Amino acid sequence: MPRTVIAASSIITPLGPYPSLPVSALALDLAWQAADTTNQNYFPLGTGKYLILVRNVHATTGYTFTLTSSADERKRTGHITTYALAAGKVAAFMVDQQAGWLQTDGGFYLEGSNASIEFCILRLP
Predict the structure, then answer these.
(1) Contact at 8 Å (CB) between 110 and 65?
(2) CA separation for the pair 30, 110 (Å, rounded)
(3) What are the residue boundaries of the structural domains of the chain, listed by start?
(4) Nearest to 109 by CA among 77, 76, 73, 86
(5) What is the phi-psi region of residue 14: left when phi exceeds 0, alpha when psi lies from -120 to 50, beta otherwise?
(6) Any bridge partners for residue 64, and if so which?
(7) What is the pTM of this model?
């Protein structure tokens, strides 16, 4: 099965610094998508900067997530593997270049060990 794409609604370009006023209801809200623990996830990695937010919504149990790198021009990889995220916590990871992260299908690969792991991708201007 192919990886499950992070929905466009969970890939957000934040407003600011001078948004049109008044700012409409829900315009500043983040949208989260639960990890697909069977097929894993990806999002299309365009040029620019992305801030990957990962949260664990479980009340008491910690879970892990993985960000899968790709070989860079020197054939090095640097996966972030089974990063432990405590219950109720949020982690952030910046990607400001494609080298080392862009997969052959044009995506960025990420996965969670449980559906309590949720992703939100911020595309930074």
Answers:
(1) yes
(2) 18
(3) 4-14+30-124
(4) 77
(5) beta
(6) 84
(7) 0.94
Going by the DSSP 8-state scheme, the letter that residue 61 receives in this structure is -
Structure tokens that stand for 26 in this block: 């829900």
* Helices vs strands, H then E, count in the chain: 0, 10
Q: What is the CA radius of gyration of the chain?
A: 15
pLDDT digits (tens, 9 = 90+) for 64-119: 999 999 998 888 889 999 999 999 999 999 999 999 999 999 999 999 999 999 99
CA 118 to mean position of chain CA atoms: 8
Residue 110's φ and ψ, nearest 5 degrees, are -145, 155
Alpha-carbon span 11 to 39, nearest angstrom: 19
